[in-house]
């Protein structure tokens, strides 16, 4: 790996796939450098797509949130784990396949939007995301369906989510409970799995080696980018990473998205490679 301060050739950047929380905003506060960078990239015609493990917001919710920060994007520029879960099921099963959903209204909307039928009667697939109204009865229906052969899909593996006062269990915690009960391993959609990155790539229509992945967490964002074969950029604006014992290293590290100079990148120069 090159020492800090040297510049290595950067492939022309055609597209950007980026995480949201910790990169573009922190909770409800915009990260201004990032908003400005995306506005600049948008003006220069660069294509981008946001990816989020959060299945409790629709792409339209994200559009509204970014609009409030002064960045106007379209719902097509947002890929959520809910949307990707729905697309993965539709890629494998015909229209009106019966799906049982444990999750937020946004997950239900994504499943219905993909032409699938929501039912608790003999479902062919069970999809689980974060459900703040989860009950033992919902878990019983999921367990029964999976033991009867239904496919088991989880939106994202996040075990703990930060709250204003501490933490709450993430979707991964309840998915793990159903996996333990049934002894069936779920198909996980969200980062660090590469499925959302693939969905975003196909929307952008850009080449893999000229599409960069930006994220603030190595075990999820950077791992997913690596698995999808993309150059990865870690931005250090998010919550400090919890102890990461993996040997995964991002290709580049920046402290602000303002450091990614697309003009320089397009002319073959690059941000500093991690030293
Ligand atoms: Mg993040």
Can you describe what's shown?
Residues 1-9 and 266-275 have low confidence and may be disordered. The protein is an alpha/beta fold and 275 residues long. The chain starts with 14 loop residues before the first strand and ends in a 9-residue tail after the last helix. The protein has 2 domains: 1-13 and 34-47 and 207-275, no CATH class; 48-205, 3-Layer(aba) Sandwich (Rossmann fold), CATH 3.40.50. It has 9 helices and 15 strands. The longest helix has 12 residues, at 32-43. It binds magnesium ion.
Provide tags for this entry.
2 domains; binds magnesium ion; Rossmann fold; five-stranded parallel sheet; 275 residues; single chain; disordered N terminus
How are the SSEs ordered, and which strands pair?
Layout: E1 15-18, E2 25-26, E3 29-30, H1 32-43, E4 47-52, H2 59-68, E5 78-80, H3 81-92, E6 98-102, H4 105-113, E7 117-118, E8 125-128, H5 136-147, E9 151-154, E10 160-162, E11 167-169, H6 171-182, E12 187-188, H7 195-204, E13 211-215, H8 218-227, E14 232-235, E15 252-254, H9 262-266
Parallel strand pairs: 1-4, 1-13, 4-5, 6-7, 6-8, 8-9, 9-12, 13-14, 14-15
Antiparallel strand pairs: 2-3, 10-11
This protein binds magnesium ion (MG).
